[in-house]
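Example record for the data management plan.
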Amino acid sequence: MTNTRPFLPGYAVFAAMLASAGLPIYIHAPKFYVDEYGVSLAALGTVLFILRLFDFVQDPVLGWLSEFARRYRRGTVLLAALVMAVSMIGLFAIEPPVAPLLWFALTLTGLFTAFSYLTICFYAQGVRTAENLGDKGHVRLASWRETGGLLGVCVAAVAPTVLAAQSGSPFALFAAGFAGLAILGIAAMWREWRTVSGEPSPGFRPVLADGQARRLLLIALVNATPVAVTSTLFLFFVESRLAAPGWEGPLLLLFFLSAALSAPLWSRAAQRFGAKRALLAGMGLAILSFGWAATLGAGDTVAFAIICLASGAALGADLTLLAAIFARRMAVVSPDAGQAFGLWSFVSKFTLAFAAVTLLPLLDAAGFQSGPTNSAEALMTLTILYALIPCALKLIAIALLAATPISET
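Corresponding structural encoding:
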């Protein structure tokens, strides 16, 4: 353990870099490959799901690797960041040299593998750092980390829309900008990576053997799925259900900016009322938002903007508090938490892939097409998937969390 004062802004910058390569990929990449190369929604959803099945094996292995290679943490993190940057450029900025669907799969494989490794190292380092921050250290660090991550999502979510007004190749510029952000993220965290003494952790056996840790992983799985659903369908919902093409970027910005600005407030609420109570309140707010969204139709853009504010604030609670609760538990059952966060990373990404493999084919089967012209049946299917399914999943997550004893110390 080191006495060096943790550089918390570095965690925010690195989280922004990671987040800009995570959720926005599921927002932009499928629609980009549909519009640019005519790849079907069902095919893209299948590829995303297959890649997540690969993660079922890969992420725990990457967790083991992060612990085994602790002495070379800086070097491996730098290599992973370079792989992620190159993969992003290949995905968006290079004309596919092979079949577009195959290129989509290859570039995402590199992107997601590097993303997983960096996420595991980053969150494991956060567990160790939070122990040096005293009481409520995990919530304090999570506030910096998740606020930075949400700001990164804000920028990445709207960047292609903004760049489209300046260039005919907005996604190529987006990929180049991400490469620059990757360099900045590595620099910001450079002195935080440190060699940890002792033997590597005994794997994720202690995590799976702990009842509370298992329950938290299950809650994370169920609770993250609604966000994955709405993220996957957001652009289609705005363009087709609301009949508001051109508003996708501003509404995405509103959603993620609300999440980012709410994160410190949720952190304060957790310190005052307890993380569990604050998280339950955020989940309740999400249900109200999703329920209202189910009633919207063409022209209800202002109402949906209010929903974006509320659901964004609910997302801020999810990302800030649930991760802090899990990290606090890992400090007890698995202090060398690299492999534990291999499981956490898998759970987080699996929800996005599950949403893609189930929702996109269902839309395809209902006759939905990207664009303003769709049948009433296709639009009803879109509304049910976007709004009502997330409500049901959130109710299940609330029940699970309410029944789980959480230590607030």
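Summary line stored alongside the record: The CA atoms of residues 58 and 113 lie 8 Å apart.
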